[in-house]
Design brief:
With 452 residues, the protein is of the alpha+beta class. It has a seven-stranded mixed beta sheet with strand order 7-9-6-10-8-11-12, sandwiched between helices. A five-stranded mixed beta sheet has the order 1-2-5-3-4. A hairpin with a 6-residue loop joins strand 1 and strand 2. The chain is globular, with a radius of gyration of 26 Å. The chain contains 17 helices and twelve strands. About 14% of the residues have low confidence. The protein is 42% helix and 16% strand. It starts with a helix and ends with a helix.
């Protein structure tokens, strides 16, 4: 950027800006110490060291020609180099291995125990013990109670507008498939904002990666940014800023590539459109699953937490389908069809169902799940993490309106159960859980970590 600015100010060609060439060469050489990179670096090193980092608008025509010839010779070499690295990385470094068959829990008691164990995962368990130690009422701008919605909702004083904000990223997805993982980071943050009743507007980011001079890390970074860009173009959410943190690693390994997204959304008029809550509100309402469910548990929290494996591809994602999903949620909320709304993410279908009960807004509310997604087996039905899925409780008597709207937008929906007042969660093909049985691991796990 500085080189281009200097060219614009002085009219002197960018070929005179020697640090530009040096950095380019160093990147190539550092990325795997390839022959191309080393050869280019040798060419650049021919320039006097004390002149290497100086901007020299007085370079002679011969010097300009020498630099230009070096650039022309290696023009496009960086792209060719990284294309080679990409192929090697895909094949041998990350591999994107398919998941091995996971032993099935034929005994339903085992399935029930796995569900309770999933609630103890730090990625799923409630962070309430932490955030309740902070004053959420500072400046009295919070529209909703902390943790009650899929994203934070803050009023803009003096107006009827409110902002919804959410930070999100699953580093495991980005590790398994950097491009798709980058897309999912943006898509899930946008979905959380939409599930609170807001239209996504823009993003910021905090990009956390290992050493960029390692070919696989540079590839992860490049691909993840490309994926973020793909999603931002579809959602029309510009990147307003952000930061990059490299070298997050130990001698043994680097962190999962984690491009954390901060999504901003807007509720135009809180007098006309209420924010949507995650938890159940009224007994007798129908619970619907929006979106498609596949049969894979690749990259899932279930695979990682229960079986100790981070394998397979990132979950299924279709950005265009996500955009239509936004429309269904927002238009339905403007029409007053929903009492609550919660997206499916870590832990899949069964965790989202349980969370809606644990976040309920009235005592005694529960769920009777009479239908679960039809997939390859019970584990994938319960724990699959395919993207673009949301649970909504539709107000009594408004079911046909909702189904007509979904049909109009060509979005698949399935009624899966009813809100009950029996203080439990009953799931077809699995069994029953009491509220306390679920609440204990969900709310107490994080606290127990800090009090050891």
């Amino acid at each position: 950027i500085h080189a281009l600015e200097q060219e614009k100010k002085t009219g002197v060609a960018i070929t005179n800006w020697r640090p530009f060439k040096f950095v380019f060469a160093a990147q190539m050489y550092g990325a795997g110490k390839t022959r191309l990179g080393a050869e280019f670096l040798d060419q650049v090193k021919k320039f006097p060291q004390d002149e290497l980092f100086k901007y020299d608008p007085t370079a002679t025509p011969q010097e300009q020609e020498e630099i230009l010839q070096v650039v022309k010779r290696f023009e496009g070499a960086e792209r060719r180099l990284y294309n080679l690295i990409n192929k090697k990385t895909l094949r041998t470094v990350l591999g994107v291995m398919r998941s091995p068959p996971i032993p099935r829990s034929v005994d339903l008691q085992d399935i029930k125990e796995e569900i309770l164990q999933m609630l103890r995962s730090p990625n799923i368990a409630s962070k309430r013990w932490i955030y309740e130690q902070y004053d959420s009422m500072v400046r009295t701008n919070s529209v909703t109670q902390t943790g009650a919605t899929d994203s934070a909702v803050i009023r803009i004083k003096g107006t009827n507008k409110a902002l919804a904000m959410k930070t999100d990223c699953n580093g495991r997805y980005v590790y398994l498939n950097p491009r798709k993982g980058g897309q999912i980071a943006v898509a899930e943050a946008a979905r959380n904002v939409v599930c609170s009743g807001a239209k996504p507007l823009a993003i910021t980011n905090c990009l956390n990666f290992g050493n960029p001079y390692k070919p696989e890390v540079y590839w992860q970074f490049s691909e993840a940014l490309g994926g973020m860009g793909d999603a931002c173009h579809v959602f029309e959410t510009p990147v307003t800023g952000g930061n990059v943190s490299f070298y997050n690693e130990s001698p043994d390994s680097s962190v999962f590539p984690t491009p954390t997204i901060g999504m901003l959304g807007l509720i135009e008029d809180t007098e006309k459109t209420n924010p949507l809550f995650s938890g159940l509100k009224e007994e007798g309402e129908s619970l619907y699953l929006i979106g498609k469910t596949g049969s894979s548990i690749d990259g899932s929290e279930y695979l990682s937490w229960i079986h100790g494996k981070t394998l397979g591809d990132a979950p299924y994602l279709n950005l265009e389908d996500e955009l239509v999903l936004h429309k269904l949620i927002l238009e339905g909320n403007e029409a007053g069809l929903y009492s609550s709304c919660h997206d499916l993410s870590d832990g899949g279908f069964v965790m989202a169902v349980i969370e809606m009960v644990l976040l309920r807004r009235k005592d005694k509310l529960g769920l009777d799940i009479s239908s679960i997604p039809t997939t390859g087996n019970l584990e994938s039905a319960l724990f699959n993490e395919d993207q673009g899925r949301v649970l909504v409780s539709v107000k009594k008597g408004r079911e046909s309106e909702f189904e007509k709207l979904a049909n109009k937008l060509n979005v698949p929906v399935q009624v899966i159960g009813k809100v009950t007042d029996n203080n439990q969660v009953k799931i077809k093909s699995v069994g029953e859980f009491s509220f306390d049985e679920l609440a204990s691991p969900y709310y107490k796990t994080i606290e127990s970590y800090y009090k050891r």
